[in-house]
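Data deposition worksheet. Section B asks for the primary sequence of the deposited chain exactly as it was used as input, without tags or linkers unless they were present during the calculation. Section C holds the resulting structure in token form. Section D is free text for depositor observations; keep each observation to a single sentence. Incomplete worksheets are returned to the depositor.
Section A, Depositor: J.P.
Section B:
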Amino acid sequence: MNKISIYLATGLMVTSGLLGAAVGYSFSPEYRTSMYEKGTMGLGRADKSLDKRYIDAMAAHHRGAMLLAEQAAQGAKRQEIKSLSKDILAGEPKLIAELYSWKRAWYGDAREAQDPVVANLGPSDEKFDLRFLNALISHHEAGIEMTQEARTKSSRAEVLDNADAVEAFLKTTLETFKSWRLEWYNV
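Section C:
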């Protein structure tokens, strides 16, 4: 008899706790929103500063690619990785300049975003190129999430076009990086 009471009491407590959390969650839209925003790339709400936040986040994303490429320019073993790092270092500054030109024109703000922290790829050894590919794959996946978020929240044509172009590029190169990783490292 006591065992049934203990099981019943435990079941009621668990059910009450879950029901209370569900009711509280459904009646607190700001809690739901804040919990959702914790999982985003930091673009936040679709307000008048969204495009400015996208510009800063995407510029920092491009700078992150450059910081990884600088390491690869020094440590890569494979010619494909050396060529890729050279292309990144040549192309990304132009993309960043375009973003900042929009920021100056639309917001009168000439400040640049802070450089992101990127992985230290370690010594130039036989696994360096694998570490670089892993870092770039993760970097590209984060960039795709950012562009998808911008496309659902922005209404400015330039930002939407930029997000579309960046996402298409990231998806294509992401597949290349994954195929290199599979071919070279069977990963």
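Section D:
Residues 23-41 have pLDDT under 50 and may be disordered.
The chain has two domains: 1-38, 47-185.
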